[in-house]
Amino acid sequence: MKKFLFLTISLCLLGAWFGVCFQTRAQFEVNQPTEASRVSPNFVVSQFQTAGGTANDEFIELHNVSSNAVDLNGYRVVYRSAGGTNDVPFVEWTTSTIVAPGGYYLIASTGYDGTVTPNLTYNPTTCSCSMGAAGGGIAARNGAVNSGVLID
Known about the structure:
By secondary structure, this protein is of the alpha+beta class.
């Protein structure tokens, strides 16, 4: 009987130790910030175009998908070419710029020929911010250049 009691207590202690010391992948991901956990549930890049009627017919559309206003102050929009290793800045907001709940913010090149008036324009011939049609990525980041949070 003493052996059975000792074995039962030993197994209970071993089980408790495993429960405390080892986490499942799901438990680990809940406790660790992942790329997916850094994606904003409020503010996304909803559309972009790298070339339309002309090579410079480009735009990036930001969308506030939340029910609260979003202040763009501290955010920046960047582009990275398919072969690039660094972000190329499009815009960085340093003053309060409010996007209403459900609202949009349009950033377009001076060659944009869409019917919606952009909130902000850039000249791809005088900046190094033109997007390539052969691949790459766009992100809205929040915070300092090297510590930004990926928005989309």
